[in-house]
Amino acid sequence: MITKRISKNLSDNVFVDIMEFKALQSGTIGFDMMNIQRSLDVEFSETDFGYFNDIDDIETEFIHKVDLIQSRMERVGICNYPFDISDDGSRLHLKSDISDSGFIYLFCLLLSHPKEDDVLSGEYKPNITDIERRLFQSCSTVAASGLIKGNSVSFGFPRPDNTGFLEKLKEVYALIGGSKIRDEPIAATPKNIKDFEIDVIAWLRRPDVNVLERYFLAQVASGFNWDEKALTSETIDKFHYLFFSEYPQSKFEKGMFIPFAPEHKNQIVLDDYIRILEGQYGKFHYRFSIPRHYNEGIKLSQQNNKLIIDGISDFHKIKTWVSTEIKRIKSISTGTNR
Hints:
The chain is of the alpha+beta class and 338 residues long. Helix content is 44%, strand content 12%. The protein is elongated and about 70 Å long.
């Protein structure tokens, strides 16, 4: 079994992630959700604490667990969520025709569990390398375009085009306009700069005049220490001071992209928790929101071929990697990998 055991004590996010991995194991046939109730029955029969008094308590807990799946589906968006519940409500299954944004959701799900944890037992671990982590920057760049409805460039090191920091800086801000890079660095400028903690730069101009309407700088973090990587306003101010004699006059927006579903105490409503994170990190985007904005970025590129949106061409690599990992999961489940 590739997942940990279902338990009444699991957090909401951990429980639904387990269900999604079970659905990946089962494919389009689906995971019988009555197994949730059977697992709860076994656990409650084993406890001596009298936490559940009768069958009604078990049924109530089962309904709550199923509601969690439905809630996630609605938050992510039906077209962006790669799983579905059968018409009779008995099975959670992988869709037979997964949308591009659905593959982005699966990509984020797999990146969220690189090793044994509260969700995975350790029998299966995704093959995650620096290549996949860079691909997450690609999908975040497309999502940033969808978020601000404009251009979006991958700026984080190592860059896809292998450019150095100053070379890429001049290239990007020539496109943005309204700014001037310093001819000579000032004395306080650090040496050997990679990206100055900025992974994505996105912008939108007003259609009627040559004025920036939105100017967005973001950090992309795929590791568990994402909460230590906030792109602060002070860092952005220093970035502008050190490298620009004139910088864009539009007020900047900052943000963060992570593949995880941030863990929070069940007593805190998710909406409130995201508001807290936005107070710390700016525009905060994670596994539930990135697929939607990625989809919007793809649509923008189709509607306006003049927009500059990095990362779109990497989708086939993401889809291939996710499809390979799903095959690995199914082979472990059937024993064909042995």
